[in-house]
Amino acid sequence: MKFRRLVISCIAVFFALGAAACSSGGGSGGKGGKSGGKVDIVWWFPAKEQEATMKKIAEEFNKKQDHINLKPQLNAGADYYTKLQTVLAAKNGPDVMWMNGPNFPKFQSKGFLMKLDNKVDTDGVSMTNYPESLVKLYSKDGYYGIPKDYDTIGLFYNKEMFDKAGVPYPSDKWTWDDLRSAALKLTVKSGKTASQWGIAAHLSTQEVVYPFLVQNGVLPIAEDRKSLKYDSPEGIEAVQFLFDLMYKDGSSPDGQYMTDNDPLQLFQSGKVAMIMSGSWQAKPYYDALKDKVDVQMLPSHMKSGNIIHGVAWVGNANSKHPDEVWEVLKYLGSKEVAMLQAETGTVIPAFNGTQDAWVKSMPLNLKIFIDSTSIAEPYPSAFDPEWETPVNTHLTNIWLNKETPSDGLKKITEESNKVLAATN
Amino acid sequence: MVGEKGTNPVARVVIHSVLILGALTMLLPFFWMITTSFKTYADSVQIPPVWFPAKPDFSWYPRIFEQVPFGRFYFNTIWVTVGRTVPQVFLCAMAAYGFARLRFPGRTAIFIGVLAILMVPSQVLLIPQYFEMVRFGWVDTYKALIVPGIFSAYGTFLLRQFFLTLPKELEEAAVIDGCHYWTIFWRILLPLTVPALAALTFFVVLWSWNDFMWPMVVTNDESMRVLSVGINSLQGVYTSQQPLLMAGAVMATIPLLVFFLVLQRFVIKGISFSGIKG
Amino acid sequence: MSLAKEPQMMLTGSAVKSALRTREMLWGYFFIAPVVIGLFIFVVIPIIASLVLSFSSWDGSSNMNFIGLDNFVKMFSDQVYLKALRTTTVYTAITVPATIILSVMVAVMLNRQIRGRDVYRLIFFLPSVTMPVAIAVVWKWMYNGSNGLINYLLSLVGIDGPGWITDERFILTSIMIIAIWGGIGYNMIILLSGLQGIPDTYYEAASLDGATSWSRFANITVPLLTPAIFFVLVTSLIGAFQVFDLVFMLTPVTSGGGAGGVLQDATRTAVFSIYQNGFTWFKIGYASAQAWVLFVIIFLITMLQMYLQKRWVHYE
């Protein structure tokens, strides 16, 4: 009997609450509408670490003008693109959003993104304000994105470990050979197993493989995004070099070890002396290692080279308010916004000449990330995202010592080119 | 129930050793979650892992409250969970009784249809279901979070299995007495299925509480966010701070554990009902 | 007279019976209606939509082309998906029976009046409420090839352990172990509530007959638990065929964001492939077709179980 009374009271409470929620839910209003005579522009980004800055930017913008209400919304990190795809396919979603390089082609090719050309031309926005390779990254048959920020790759090193081994710190003149011999000297082996490694040649296309290809004169993808040529002697040499660090010199943990143990953590725990990482890693490395860590330009071989990637702001092609979207994009691409971003030290703003604040945000040699833009190739992307699957598949096999570098690269070239040739 | 008197000491030692060994492995991740929420960032990225931080860092918990409106997330999560659980358990019990006890044309076919719903991978339904929410104008409302989560094939199947184990004589007597089907369901059978209702309640609460993909897709505004989505948003795009994430996870899990303990008491008390049969 | 009266009485009898039948039928529809209608609106309509999509090459854009059976034809020469289906089958065939046997054992142990029973129950359920990231981190630590707990224990008895999650011959086994470990808690809850529905009087009667504890287990507990076991079997099987999260979590991903290689070949399951096609590559039509093939497989297996249950499931 007690049980029944419990159930009944539960149901009663539920309906009472339900009535309350429905009446309060009605007040929040639909989206994409107008509030107080203003047009609501919904603006999405996935980066928690930048939320405070984005809110501040929106506040500034809403103060500056009186007909748009810019609403910033953080949308969960890793699943951001899954959600974006779902809502855009339903012709719904934000008016202005964050986009990255690998995802741009597939979103653009589905007709989700607003083409900015005539706006850029007539409204006095100069794309020369941003690094050229970034502008290229978000162009197809015209401009689609306003560059927000960028990242390049640097060689982080643990000064304490260098001092202990009596090895001079990396310089901006370093070649692959310098890197290799220093890594060997910094490796401490007791019998078969190492207790300390000179370098972590981890399997990251963006931070390790592509930069090394570029340094040997191989493009990660052809200009027209329709082919690649990793099986050239230079391509094989680059990957063989990385492979030898693991399996010949033993100056880097091997693929198995780095699958079991996160290489970034190995560096942060002082188990490896050097690692190639993106500029976004500067802050966590500094937090973990403090003044023991510094950073230098990547070594060169045939030439110096780097990879640049960056985020852009794009507009929703199905937005009900295209003019207002452009107004917001224009503001987001302004120097004012770039300065607001730079002050927080989280990202390198894309607007040329606003990077100083970021460089000074930590006592590291962060200038190298800015200097590297002139030697950097854009992060490769193509319209069928499947092109990168063979790259990841065979590189993983090479790193795990299941395929030789030359065999693996031949397969990548063959399989990826097949995918790339099938798309337009 | 088998009492202690039936067990010999050797068996007891064996049982306890097996249970303790199992329990330890089950405890470990939870333990890790708690200790990590008290680690400094540097400790949290060590290899091999640090199990007991030498200098515990208590700052992650206050930091969460600075970064996200945790109170609002709690409210939303509780509201969504209650809103899904109460009607679901009730409606599933009704349907289960219908499928288990009443004869009507198409019963087996409809039941198999209900069961078949479980077999479609939810990943391919995400986009059509979202389209539906757009069509209904439910995006960013509690309705989208709650209503589609009420109707459950799983719950119907679970309770049907339990209704099938109840002796038929109970209702036959009632039918002869001229009792209504509703009365049979409500007064005679439902009280006997309390353990199963409790089990289902627990599952529904657990799943609503942890449900991530759906709430993430159908809500945009921070004020509509639930705990699972809120905690996930603590993860940055470029880097994540494990201790912060784990502190959030600990806070989200505690109410669930309390609920489990309370419900377990209730289930055990529920057994006394089954004493009436046999 | 009497001869004429009898059929009449029978007629009234059957009329009453059919009135009762109609009443039962109407009440039957009434009881199932809310759930069935709700499921129809929120699940069946989207399911039909996905079926339609499986005959298209839809990629999320505005133009949707219907390509007939092309997706299904393509699938039968798609070695990656066929391999994924085989992997999923192996995964299911091993994890489901193992989880169920262990869950029954644990549930029976925890249904006794043993010391610390409530604490054990809580702990066995902990993996279900622990954040998946924490579970992944701890298992990766245990599986670590160079300094993990398992290989350390193995080294004590002189065995040189393999790389549990870095060797393509072991990684699927390692993932299955976690699946079994994590599944015990769920099933235990259902089985415990099944066990608690067994009236004490049955056991008391058996005790009077002098039954041993084994024969009580075999003759009372197991038969009366079969409806709950049947439920656990059917839902675990469906769940195992749809395994995704665990694989996603434990298959190493390169820091560039992509994953691949021998390790992913060894662990790619059907739903993993569906996710990859649908969300990573935007091939929603093809992903829907893959999902429908998986659905048919699960459906046939479940129907077989429904048919076979008459032989072993004990209903009142």
Structure characteristics:
heterotrimer, A: 424 residues, alpha/beta, D-Maltodextrin-Binding Protein, domain 2, 8-stranded mixed beta sheet, 5-stranded mixed beta sheet, B: 278 residues, mainly alpha, MetI-like fold, 0% strand, disordered N terminus, Bact_solute-bd_prot1 (chain A), SBP (chain A), signal (chain A), transport (chain A)
How would you describe the overall organization of this protein?
- The complex is a heterotrimer of chains A (424), B (278) and C (316).
- Chain A has 424 residues and is α/β, with parallel strands linked by helices.
- Chain A folds into two domains: 34-151 and 309-359, Periplasmic binding protein-like II (D-Maltodextrin-Binding Protein, domain 2); 153-308 and 380-422, D-Maltodextrin-Binding Protein, domain 2, CATH 3.40.190.
- In chain A, 45% of the residues lie in helices and 17% in strands.
- Chain A has helices spanning 2-27, 51-64, 80-89, 104-109, 117-122, 132-137, 159-165, 176-186, 205-215, 233-247, 255-260, 263-268, 282-289, 322-332, 335-343, 356-359, 367-371, 388-399, 405-422, and strands at 34-35, 38-45, 68-74, 96-99, 145-151, 153-158, 188-190, 193-200, 272-278, 293-296, 306-315, 348-349, 376-378.
- In chain A, helix 9 (205-215) crosses helix 10 (233-247) and helix 18 (388-399) packs antiparallel against helix 19.
- The radius of gyration of chain B is 23 Å and the shape is globular.
- Mean pLDDT of chain B is 85; it is low at 1-5 and 269-278.
- Chain B has 14 helices and no strands.
- Chain B has helices at 9-36, 41-44, 60-67, 70-101, 107-117, 126-136, 142-146, 153-165, 169-176, 181-192, 194-210, 213-218, 227-232, 242-270.
- Chain B is an all-alpha fold and 278 residues long.
- The radius of gyration of chain C is 26 Å and the shape is flat.
- Chain C contains 13 helices and no strands.
- Chain C starts with a helix and ends with a helix.
- Chain C is 76% helix and 0% strand.
- In chain C, helix 12 runs antiparallel to helix 13.
- Mean pLDDT of chain C is 86; it is low at 1-9.
- Chain C folds into two domains: 1-53; 74-312, MetI-like (MetI-like fold, Orthogonal Bundle).
- At the B-C interface, helix 1, helix 4, helix 5, helix 6 and helix 8 of B face helix 1, helix 4, helix 5, helix 7 and helix 8 of C.
- Chain B: It comes from Cohnella pontilimi.
- Chain B: It holds the Pfam family BPD_transp_1.
- Chain B: This is Carbohydrate ABC transporter permease.
- Chain B: It is a multi-pass membrane protein.
- Chain B: Residues 74-263 form the ABC transmembrane type-1 domain.
